[in-house]
Structures are given as C-alpha cells and as structure tokens.
Amino acid sequence: MNTSPLDNPFYYLENFRQVLDWIARRYDDLLDATERRFISEFAELPVPAQGLLVRMVMRKGVLFRASKLGYVEIGDPHDAVLPLLAREWVDTAPPLGLSELFQLLRRDELSHCFKDHAVKGPERKQDWFERLQPMYPAPQSLEQWHPTLSDAVFGLKIMPLCDRLRLLYFGNLYQEWSEFVLADLGIYRYEKVEFSLESRGINERADIDVCLQLHAFREALEACLELHTLAERVIAIECGNPWLLMRRGKLLFRIGQQAERVQDWPLAMAVYRQSSYPGARSRQIRVLERNAEYAAALTLAEQARLAPESDAEVQHLSRVMPRLQRKLGLTAARKRTVRAIARLDVQVTPVSGMSVERLIRLHLEEQQGGEVHYVENALINSLFGLLCWRAIFAPLPGAFFHPFHSAPSDLYSPDFYQRRASLFDACLMQLESDEYLATIREHFESKYGLQSPFVFWGALTPELLEQALYCLPAEHLLSWFRRLLQDIKANRTGMPDLIQFFPEQRRYRMIEVKGPGDRLQDNQLRWLDFCAEHGMPVEVCYVQWATDDSVFVSSDLSDHQGALCPS
C-alpha cells in the first residue's frame, strides 16, 4: 500500500484543490468551457474519486493497473473510479498496444498472453517484444490480451487538460506536481513574494498554445526529429509575449547548434537569423566562416563591433576579425591586448580520489599560510544574492506568479536590471558604508535555505562568510556585483576556483587552478581580465604532477564535489 509521509493523507488533494482555486481566481478569462466545467465538476466529486483522479494525474503516464492504485485513504479503486467513468474522464477498457502491454504486465503475465510465442531461454524482454511486434500490430483491451487476469487498467483521458492547468499555474511544463510535496516536506523552501491577482505569466489564450508548442518542439529536438521540419514549425510560431519570445529564441538557437553539428550551414544561418537569443549573432559569423563566406562574415562582424551585445561577443570579435581579414587578403587589425595575469607554477603529487583544486588548496595553506577555500562561482554570487535579496525578489508584475519560484521569471531577460534599477542601486549604495555588512548577515540568517538563483547555501558557511566580509574590500564587491548585473547569464560563471584569505593583513587573493592539459575557458579569461583591470589580486596556478617523493604529498582524501550547487 502507498502511504503519505505527511500527516494529512489527502495532502496531495489539498494541493490540487489549491491549484484549481488559484487558476479559477487568476486565469478565468483564459479558460475555455471544458476547463471551467472540469474545475466546477471536480469540486462536486466524492472525496475518494477526487483522490483517485489526482493520484493518477500526479503519476507518470496515463495507464494504470487498478491493483497498483491501492491507497488507504481512497479505498477500493473500482468504487472510487465510478464517478470518473460517468464523466468520461477515465476509461476502464483503454486499447493497449503491445508496447503498452509490456510496460503494464509482469513477465509471467505476458507469458500467459503469448503461450504460443513464449520467451526463448535467456531471451531478454526487449528482444521478445521486438519478435512479437510484427505479429500483434493492433491494440486490444486488457481483457482481450489476458482474459483470465483479475485486474483492470484505468486510462486517464483528461491528462492534456490537466497539463494545460499545470502550465497556467507554473508557467511551464518542467515543474511537476511534486513541487508541493517537496515544499511540504521542507526539502525545497521558497521566498514568500506578494503578488497581485493581475500578476501572471500567461495573459492570452494563444500563449497557452505557444507554450505547448514550444514544449513539444523541445522534446522533438531531443528525439532528433527532422531538423528542417522542426525549424520551419518553430519559426512559424507567432507570439507577442516577450517571455515566450525569449523561449522561442532559445529553442531556435539550440536547433542552430544541432544544424552546425551536422554541418547544415544554410539551416543554421536561417534559424540563427530568426533567434534573438544571446550569442546568435556570433554563431552566424562562425557559420559564415565555416562555410567559407568570409566577406559576409566580416561584414556582420563589423556591424557587431559597432554595438556588441556582451563582453563575450567582444571577445569573439577580437579573435575572428583578424582571421577573416587575413583570409580576404586585408590588413589584419591588431588583436585586443589581454592584461597580464600573474602565473603560479606548482608541482604536486596526485592523490587518488582528490581533485586538483583540493590538492592546491592544501598545498597553498601549508606553504603560504592563510586559509584557502574552494569557492569557484559560489562566493561572489552568494554575497551578491544576500545583499540584493530584496531587489531580486521584488514583486514586479509578471516576475512571480505562483509560490514555487526559485528566481524571477525574467532573470535572463535583457531588461532584468533596468526594471529594478532603483532597487538594485539602493542595495549597492550600502557598500559606501558599513551598512552592507549588516544586510548580508541579516539575510544569511533570515533567508537561510530558501531557494535562490545566486546563493550557494551548501558552500557558504558562517566562517567563510565572515572571512569574506572582513577581507574583501567593498569597492571590489561593488565592481563584481555591477559586472554581474550587466549580463547575469554570462557573468555568473567563470570566477576563479580558489580564494585565499590572510586575515592578519586583511587581504585576499583568488587563484584559478589549471591541471595538466587543462586550459582557460573564455568566460574564465573574461573574469581574469576584469579582475586585472580593476587591480584585484588574482593568479592562474598551472599544475604539474610531481614524481619526486620529496614534493608535497597530502593524505586528506576529502573532496569538494557536489558542494557548489545553488539552492
């Protein structure tokens, strides 16, 4: 029997009722007659029927054996299902294809169905299925497949409707009903944001269809549907919702990347031209170059140079333009000079099970003193998230529209900062005095464990926080935070691996660690260059494996893996 870990055995039903009430109050103008009728009639069902329906809705698939739907609070599923049958929401004799039958029945039950084609010795179930498939092309009811089996299959007929309701509530289809359970159990905890009845992610009925199309097309891309057909369908989508247009642009960007992998340059260009996703223009230049269209590539690069969309595009142009000019027989422009970054060469002996960053951390502490922490992107992002918590979770229209947002829905929108400029500026102004220290500490205490797009609770210990607040100058924090706000998606990664604090001198340095054969990535180069430009102490540590036993060897086998995941 299935049991609930929560005190109320109908906890899942209460959650579903909450969703229906939420939708009825906030999205009534977008509902069609079928959806309104479902919400109304669901409330009239007996509680066992409500519970059974919600149990099926919240499970995977649409076919369920009655014997697997035994819940103490619901009772006999054959009785509970009767009101659902009357409304044609469930079918107790759904047609089952061979594939569905193989998913529902055990091996011994299948052997009874196919006595004349029994499994051959060690034959795998999948091989058996493939052998039977040509012989049984037509679907049948369970009773036809197995007349003596004392069980029934319930087919859920309203899952598309329930998916639309879930879409209206969450604004997407990747969040599942389990969000409620995880929140009820305290596994995920969310900031409570006040939002008005008008605050919602979808504002027109047509937006629902666009969401469903985009979701289906993303799945089709994963399933490797014919790219040209898929691209045509996505390009044909028309929508006035900026939030959905961004999703459409991202999907086109991914289709373009797949077209590049198969070297279909015309298709890649076609979808990149239709995509507004960051980086699409740089990919167009790359595709033109790969297709030997050097003049067109240079023309587009020169247009981009006049109004670059990001530091990443500036970096890309500094590399590609001289190369294109040389290929066209032109005088190549001088490459942008990269600021010199201090270099640290270290030899250590590898230790099984220990990362190179961990080895260097222990080595630096032993050789140079101070305290070294593996922080990568965790520390700066977390300090930013704590200082600017109020701005990040400000209840702007459309930013939050249900209780399970870990981040504003427009976090990666180009106008994310502009919409909240005064709020962010007020937060950053605290860095001009010691006020920021109290704000960060207070939010660390009062918001601890709440989902955040910036705060890495698993990595930010009280000790690390206090060392950072003591050793990191406010002007450096301000520079980092403003760079984050310039391009959150691109700039929240690429930060140095380690930070070393010297509390006695109230100073610090950051170290990017590169093991043998490893090289700096583009986002890491941009962060290093930024730090060097602003006089921040940063070094790149190049590691070589030592073979001499006299070189530092550590026996600490603990590692940092898994520690740096944002909540």
Defining key terms:
567 residues, alpha/beta, 3-stranded antiparallel β-sheet, 28 helices, 50% helix
Write a structural description.
This protein is an alpha/beta fold and 567 residues long. It has 28 helices and 8 strands. The strands form 2 sheets. The chain has a 5-stranded mixed beta sheet with strand order 4-8-7-6-5, sandwiched between helices. A 3-stranded antiparallel beta sheet has the order 1-3-2, covered by helices on one side. The longest helix is centred in the middle third of the chain and has 20 residues, at 242-261. The chain starts with 10 loop residues before the first helix and ends in a 22-residue tail after the last strand. Residues 550-563 have low confidence and may be disordered.
**Helical/strand content category:** alpha/beta
Low-confidence sequence ranges: 550-563
Major sheet: arrangement of strands: 4-8-7-6-5
Q: What's the overall average pLDDT, rounded?
A: 90
The termini sit apart by 33 Å
Give me the number of helical elements.
28
Tell me the fraction of residues in β-strands, as a range.
Answer: 5-15%
Count the beta strands.
Answer: 8
- Which outline best applies? globular
Topology of this protein?
Blueprint: H1 11-26, H2 33-44, H3 47-57, E1 63-65, H4 77-80, H5 82-86, E2 90-91, H6 98-104, H7 107-113, H8 125-132, H9 142-145, E3 153-156, H10 159-170, H11 178-184, H12 205-222, H13 227-235, H14 242-261, H15 265-274, H16 280-290, H17 294-306, H18 311-327, E4 342-348, H19 356-368, E5 371-374, H20 378-387, H21 389-392, H22 416-419, H23 421-429, H24 435-446, H25 462-471, H26 474-486, H27 488-491, E6 498-502, E7 507-514, H28 522-533, E8 538-545
